[in-house]
Every structure is written in C-alpha cells, then in structure tokens.
Write a structure and sequence with these properties.
The protein has 249 residues and is of the alpha/beta class. Helix content is 25%, strand content 27%. The protein has seven helices and 13 strands. A hairpin with a 5-residue loop joins β12 and β13. α5 runs antiparallel to α6.
Length: 249
C-alpha cells in the first residue's frame, strides 16, 4: 500500500503526500498524489491511474475521511494522472475535477460528464479551498499542450506536475531530494524528451523563479526543498529539450 506522509501542517491547513507503494507493479510508473486540506475541505491532485486507485484510496483513509475530498485537480490528460476518475465518481458522484479547458472534452472518456469537469482558462485562476486560496499556474507545452500547476502561497508549495519529475530506480525511494546532483540525472531524460518547447520552458522558469517556494512537489520522484528548488529552475533553464536534442539523434 502507498504511504501517506504530512509534508506541511499549520493549524487546519496541511499538505500530505501519498507515495511509494512497495507492491506496485514494476511495469507502471510510480506516482505521487497530494492532499491539500484547509478546514473540512480537501483537494486531491492528479489522483492517478485506475490500477492504483485501491492503493491511493487505502492510504488516504489512514489520514482523512475520503468524503472530505471536495475536488480533484488534473494537471493534464494522461492516464497516470486521471484515469481513476470514474472510480472516484463511483465513490462520490458530487466530486468535481479542475483541469485545463483543453481537456474537458477528452478526460470524460475516463468517466464523468460535462458537469464533472471544470475547465481552467489558459491564463490560470484562483481556487478556493476552505479558507485557503490556491493559485493555478499555467505550464502549457511543458509535457502537455494544456498543462496546469498549483501554488499555495501560504505553505509556499508548488505542485509542479510533471515538471521536476524524476524516473527513479526501484532502489531509490527517498521522499525528498537529498543529493541534487545525483537525483537530477533521474530527471534529465524525462525532461529532454517530454518537454517539447524551449520557449515555454524559459517562460515557466522566469515566472516560477519569482514565486516564494519552499517545496516543489512533482507527480513523479522526490520533492525539492529549499535551495534545491532554484537549483532545479536554473538547471531546467539551461537544459536542451525537445527538438533541440531530438534532431541530433
């Protein structure tokens, strides 16, 4: 079963990561889910694929009543992000799912209908969760043509989706980056192939560098803390990606 670990707590405001399932099948990519709670309301980010729904649901039950989850957030359209949507709606048909407006006609193939999906405009928006306001940060063309991230200015946490993701080997299961230079090699190939636009990359780096971030939490791999957040942004800004590398192969 996946583990649930609180990574931020301030009164009734918290972030919890759901990660690291030792019984996960080796042929699927490992994922991180995050619970953002304010008061009695909780939002679940990128709830994952249908095949891991039981593991995610069981881990959540160890920390909160899943009926406290008011909304889902899908950073983009991939199956490891949101193919569990139908199962979540079987559990609670009232759930709503925030995602880029680009995917509101595609994600319902996983479940739900035109009332389930709430389209986020290209420029982003502010989500209200309990007493908290969370900013939706656009990251279009970084892995997906319609891509969104979440920034919590109180916790100073950026949920960065696939930006910052690392494909870690099975014997590397640390929750936080402990050695940046070693860890970033697990992120290099993923960013070079799955991030297609150098222009979008530099635009994202400039905007995110201006935010006050204590933790950058990706959907795959370990969490960047403190100075490692800016180390990642600077590394990413300099990294050749997409066609910059593909044409040379």
């Amino acid at each position: 079963m996946k583990q649930a670990k609180t990574i931020f707590q301030q009164g009734n405001h918290s972030w919890t990561i759901i990660a690291r399932d030792p019984s996960k099948f080796g042929y699927i990519i490992d994922t991180n889910e995050y619970l953002i709670t304010s008061g009695n309301d909780t939002l679940l980010t990128d709830p994952g694929g249908s095949e891991i729904f039981p593991a995610v649901f069981s881990a959540i039950c160890t920390v909160i009543d899943p009926l406290g989850i008011k909304a889902l957030f899908a950073s983009h359209q991939d199956p490891d992000i949101i193919s569990s949507l139908g199962l979540w709606l079987d559990f609670n048909p009232k759930l709503r799912c925030y995602t880029s407006r680009l995917w509101t006609g595609f994600i319902p193939h996983f479940g739900g209908d035109d009332k389930t999906l709430i389209g986020i405009p290209d420029e982003g928006m502010t989500l209200s969760l309990g007493e908290l306001s969370v900013e939706v940060v656009p990251a279009h063309y970084l892995h997906s043509s319609g891509n969104m991230q979440l920034y919590d200015p109180v916790a100073k946490i950026l949920f960065s989706g696939d930006v910052g993701a690392a494909l870690m080997p099975d014997d590397q299961n640390e929750m936080y980056v402990s050695n940046f230079d070693r860890h970033i090699e697990f992120a290099r190939g993923f960013h070079q192939r799955w991030m297609g636009s150098a222009e979008a990359k530099l635009d994202w780096c400039e905007r995110v560098a201006a935010l006050d971030i204590d933790m950058m939490c990706p959907q795959h791999g370990a969490i960047y803390q403190g100075a490692d957040v800016m180390r990642f942004i600077n590394w990413f800004a300099e990294l050749p990606i997409g066609l910059q590398t593909f044409k040379k192969k």
